[in-house]
């Protein structure tokens, strides 16, 4: 084999060794380009598939990783987009590129409802690139939004406290009104009972006044008979008393006579 043939063989060997690497590099880049075309057409799902294929062939392709985050964000899969941006290797990237990654991470966090994480991402984007006006605008917007929420919550708490106080006062007023109604009802019942008692007394008096004369006379006769009975008893008692006194008097007289008789016998003659 002459010298020319040897050089040609060596060149073919080198080409065979380099060709797979070249084809592999072209393959992941071509997939990224295809994904970009899909993204521009609004075919975000197809773009995601091509970006993932590119990363399967070359996991260090940060362009494919960055664009994959954009495809996920456009599909409103914000939490997955945030995961992709957080995992993007940006150590060797420029400050502007780093700032862009943090800015997109902040947007994804904000859409996912993680305001505090979004705030820190915007701050980091400005640390990497202070000229990132979009990050600055979103940062200020988020700060104002959080302050508004705080003020709103504060006002809401005040309103709730006021509503609670008003409700308590209303309950107290209702309780007082109920007590007053109960007392008024009791007073009315007492007044009604008093009136009923008074009417009853008047009816009793009227019944006595309207009592028939015969019944009155009968009642009078009964009273007179009762009085006569009492008088007769008293008279009998008086008569008994007189008889006893008379008997006692007679006994006294007898005793006196006997005494006088003895005295006369005891006298002497002159």
Strand-helix topology:
Blueprint: H1 3-40, H2 44-57, H3 62-74, H4 78-87, H5 95-111, H6 115-128, H7 133-209, H8 213-266
Helix pairs in contact: 1-2, 1-3, 2-3, 3-4, 4-5, 5-6, 6-7
Structure, explained:
The chain is mainly α and about 270 residues long. The chain has a domain at about 1-75: Serine Threonine Protein Phosphatase 5, Tetratricopeptide repeat. About 90% of the residues lie in helices and about 0% in strands. The protein has 8 helices and no strands. It has helices at about 5-40, 45-55, 60-75, 80-85, 95-110, 115-130, 135-210, 215-265. Helix 1 packs antiparallel against helix 2, helix 2 runs antiparallel to helix 3 (about 60-75) and helix 4 (about 80-85) runs antiparallel to helix 5 (about 95-110). The longest helix is centred in the middle third of the chain and has 77 residues, at about 135-210. Residues about 1-25 and about 260-270 have low confidence and may be disordered.
Which superfamily, in CATH terms, is the homologous superfamily of the domain at 1-75? Tetratricopeptide repeat domain
Give the C-level CATH assignment of the domain at 1-75: Mainly Alpha
Specify the biggest β-sheet.
none
Q: Give me the Rg, rounded.
A: 65 Å
**Low-confidence segments:** 1-25, 261-270
Question: Which H/E pattern describes the elements?
Answer: HHHHHHHH
In short:
With 270 residues, the chain is an all-alpha fold. It is built from 8 helices and no strands.
Annotation keywords:
mainly alpha; Serine Threonine Protein Phosphatase 5, Tetratricopeptide repeat; 8 helices; rod-shaped; disordered N terminus; disordered C terminus
């Amino acid at each position: 084999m002459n010298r020319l043939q040897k050089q040609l063989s060596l060149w073919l060997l080198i080409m065979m060794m380099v060709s797979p690497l070249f084809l592999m590099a072209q393959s992941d880049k071509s997939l990224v380009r295809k994904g970009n075309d899909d993204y521009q057409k609004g075919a975000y799902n197809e773009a995601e598939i091509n970006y993932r294929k590119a990363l399967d062939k070359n996991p260090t392709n940060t362009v494919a990783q960055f664009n994959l985050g954009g495809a996920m964000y456009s599909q409103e899969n914000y939490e997955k987009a945030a995961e992709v941006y957080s995992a993007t290797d940006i150590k060797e990237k420029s400050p502007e590129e780093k700032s862009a990654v943090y800015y997109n991470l902040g947007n994804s966090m904000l859409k996912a409802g993680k305001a505090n994480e979004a705030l820190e991402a915007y701050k980091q984007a400005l640390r990497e690139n202070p000229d990132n006006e979009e990050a600055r605008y979103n940062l200020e917007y988020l700060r104002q939004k959080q302050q508004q929420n705080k003020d709103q919550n504060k006002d809401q708490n005040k309103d709730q406290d006021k509503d609670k106080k008003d409700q308590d006062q209303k309950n107290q007023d209702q309780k007082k009104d109920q007590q007053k109604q109960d007392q008024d009802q009791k007073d009315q019942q007492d007044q009604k009972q008093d009136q009923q008692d008074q009417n009853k007394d008047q009816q009793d008096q009227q019944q006595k006044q309207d009592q028939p004369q015969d019944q009155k006379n009968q009642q009078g006769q009964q009273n007179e008979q009762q009085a006569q009975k009492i008088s007769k008893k008293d008279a009998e008692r008086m008569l008994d008393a007189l008889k006893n006194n008379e008997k006692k008097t007679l006994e006294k007289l007898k005793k006196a006579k006997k005494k006088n008789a003895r005295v006369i016998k005891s006298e002497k003659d002159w």
